[in-house]
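Task 17 of the worksheet. Students: predict the tertiary structure of the chain below and write it out as structure tokens. Keep your answer in the requested format; marks are given for formatting as well as content.
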Amino acid sequence: MRKYLVLVWLLLPLPVVVVHFGRGQQWLARDKAHSFITQAEAAEKAGDWKRADELYRDADQAVGAQDRELKLRLDLARARTGFRTGEVVAAIDGVDKLLSDTAVAAMPADFQREAHELAARLHYYAGWVMRLEGAKRELWMEEAELARQNFRLLSEHHSEGASDDQKRRQKEDLESAVQLQRLSLTELMARPLPEEGRSASGQGLSEQMGKRRGQRGNKPGKGPGEEGPPSSGSGTQRFQPGSGS
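Model answer:
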């Protein structure tokens, strides 16, 4: 009997050891990642995009690939902060890659809406800046069209539950994307580039995007379950590009 009691006593720490080296490590990594995320969100609110980007990167490394949902949220955050720190091409590629991930379809609706909004804005500003840089028409039009399709998708598939202000903004964003295609270069130059888009200027974006042409935008702006062209009445003909530059 005494031998059994000794054996039980010796085995008592075993569950603690198993938890510590198993799920315990995952919990520690998640706590560490959340600490980085809290600091990153504060830096983002303060407009310190570089610090926020560094902290989101630290959180990404801490959590690894074990927590899929958190990893997707960090990918989105890094695309957002990367754009603000001037890593425009990497940010655009990042958000496009995120939207092509099948796991996004299982994410909450607000996450999907935020991802498409970010993709639309990044392509919109890229198209705007590339026009100002004198990029070839097919280059800036690709970005402008990706912006329009993502804005259209938002208005058609992500307006349920949105407030009146959100719906009005979605409509205005879509109209702005259409105007980006239709305005002459002179008209576009007369308009001030919004503050958010200024991080894309002054870095030779047209040359960088030209080198990557053909690697992105294979199926831009598709709705859930859509495999073919945009549905009837989606505005494909109405939004054909104008004379532009």
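Marker's comment: Confidence is low (pLDDT under 50) at residues 217-245. Residues 109-132 form the longest helix (24 residues).
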